[in-house]
Amino acid sequence: MSDTPRALGAPVVRREGRDKVTGAARYAAERTGPGRLYGWIVPATVASGRVTAVRTADALADPGVRTVLTHENAPRLAEPDDPVLRVLQDDRVPHRGWPVALVVADSIESARAGAAAVQVEYDTHGHDVVLTGDHPGLYTPDEANGGHPGLRERGDAMRAFEAAPVRIDSVYRLHGLHNHPMEPHASTASWDDGHLTVHDSSQGSTAVRDSLSKAFGLDSGEITVVSEHVGGGFGSKGTPRPQVVLAVMASLHTGLPVQLALPRRHMAAIVGHRAPTVQRVRLGSDRDGVLSSVTHEIVTHTSRIKEFVEQAAVPARVMYASPHSRTEHRVVALDVPSPSWMRAPGEASGMYALESAMDELACALGIDPVELRLRNEPRTEPDSGRRFSSRNLAACLREGARRFGWSSRDPEPAVREEGAWLLGTGVASATYPVLVAPSAASAHAAPDGSYRIGVNATDIGTGARTVLAQIAASALATPVENVTTDIGRSDLPAGSVAGGSSGTASWGSAVHKAATELRDRLATHTGPLPPEGITVTADTREETAQESPYARHAFGAHFAEVAVDSVTGEIRVRRLLGVYAAGRILNSRTARSQFIGGMVMGLGMALTEGSGMDPVFGDFTESDLASYHVPSCADVPDIQAHWIDEDDPHLNPMGSKGIGEIGIVGTAAAIGNAVRHATGARLRELPLTPDKVLPYLP
Asked: Does the pLDDT of residue 252 top 60, yes or no?
């Protein structure tokens, strides 16, 4: 049966699925050809200092090693748009793991062996890598990520807090987190008659092209970046990373194609991480649970290379009505790798603390946690005063409670037992902003009745090819199988980065516009189409430049049931349920996959994932998948994602909101709240590993 244009929202099967499971889909590190060389990074083994000597004789003695690039012989770069890309340009070592040399060889084996043979000498400096809540170097930045003010105040939050009959004042801690996509970061660079072609594992090949253009002084027309298939990114591939610059350097230096794929143990230091946070939340309310004061203060770290401030206090500016509010970010520059984007940046970490504090308030008041949230629903966005384009958090909470069987819950903690297991349930809310960026797309009609859409979107595992074809088919009033989608090349019409849950809205708006204009052109065309067909190109610069008068956010509710082993402290999640209000769902199959994937990632954040800095050596102690534990399917036997029908006319032509990240936002808090219900103990530091739980068990 054909997928008709009315199937927008239907569970259309992903177009590249067969290619991926049969190996036909080729990734950045699977580009082979004659003369291909391989690179291997030599990482700094000190946390702060300068390189005084790089001894390469032993490495070059290997007949397979072609060259060793260092700061003394590497191609010179213009000032890149991101300081993280300024590699092998001087002798500075800003953190442990910073690239100090690159071995280029005929094989991966020779490159790796050569890197091990390179001897580097340093002049070391004292280093500081440990974040504390009272670090003397803390300061309040003008802005946190996304252009959000570092500090926002409404009313007098502290005076209102002191006057409140019921008060919660708690500190929550999260360790560093790593993105760890299945496909490590990789790039293959080659030159052909002065034209540079790069296959890069990236969430946006247009951004990579533009960065390379600036760094190497090339015209953008001299560069093609291909990111046809990308095996996940979760934000770590949202900006160009050092391996792509190093691959281009090596190819320029040798005149041959060079491939550089990062081993997983190098990724923690090179491709970003979610910075650790110390978060203090103070809530003041009356005895009916109506909030009078909300204070959310964030302490986090950045690197000495650049300022990156996780916007974790921002969700508290959105979620609940309160006449008095204070939300502040404070940051300290340490000798650590540069933090960067990780799935639902700001919301994932900030909502863990806020939603845990809301549960603490519910417990202090003896009010059902769902009811407490409903009592504090705002009429407008608290921080801006703007009307919401749509806000159906209450519907998500009610529908989730119905599906989960919340009404039968005994609110008393530590009363449900099953042998040695203590059972508990928890709830948390979720939010994520609606983001959109300018994009362009082309729509082509061929004489045979087929259509081809071109947009430099990136499919990082989300099914972008499929949903963009559905959007085009809907606008063109044709079965979706008549539409072919070209994505993942910088020589296509420019698309925005696949990040911030903005991809489908951004690319889809451009595709819809181009397809609609093509449909109108065809309606006025007489006679057969010319042999070359008809092509229309459109962009959304004008539409995206207009600031919406509405506060636009997706919302959701998470419910969790856990079992805690009273002997070992092990926590097992038995059920996870998420209900979301995210505009129009464009493909129910891929949407459900995205929601569930986010929830599983939130489970890892709650129970297994965490990475600390070694104060002596100055690096992350959990730098591979043997020590950094991501959850598996066996970690949650029952996980369900649902959504409510939401008609929001203030978004985009499709009426859609982003869905890639909201699934992670409330999951960790829901699990932590369920652990408190199971054990009676409130734990405020993630991940909730058995060693943290055991001291609180009977």
From this structure: yes
CA–CA distance, 588 with 210 (Å, rounded to integer) = 35
DSSP output for 29-95: GG---TT-EEEEEEE-SSSSEEEEEEE-HHHHTSTTEEEEE-TTTSPP----SSGGG--SSSSEE-S
Residue 304 exposed, middle or buried by CB count within 10 Å (0-12, 13-18, 19+): middle
Give the C-alpha separation, 539 to 442, whole Å. 9
Q: In whole angstroms, what is the distance from residue 222 CA to residue 525 CA?
A: 37
Which pair of tokens denotes residue 186? 């990789």
Alpha carbons 618 and 601: distance in angstroms, whole number: 27
In the annotation, is 661 catalytic? Answer: yes
Residues 18-34: pLDDT tens digits?
999 999 999 999 988 88
3-class SS string, 231-278 = CCCCCCCCCCCHHHHHHHHHHHHHCCCEEEECCHHHHHHHCCCECCEE
**Could you read off the pLDDT of 182-231 as tens digits, one per residue?**
999 999 999 999 999 999 999 999 999 999 999 999 999 999 999 999 99
Per annotation, catalytic residue among 16, 183, 661, 685 = 661
Gap between the Cα atoms of 662 and 348, Å rounded: 8
Q: 150-183, pLDDT tens digit by residue?
A: 999 999 999 999 999 999 999 999 999 999 999 9
- The C-alpha atoms of residue 473 and residue 587 are separated, in whole angstroms, by 13
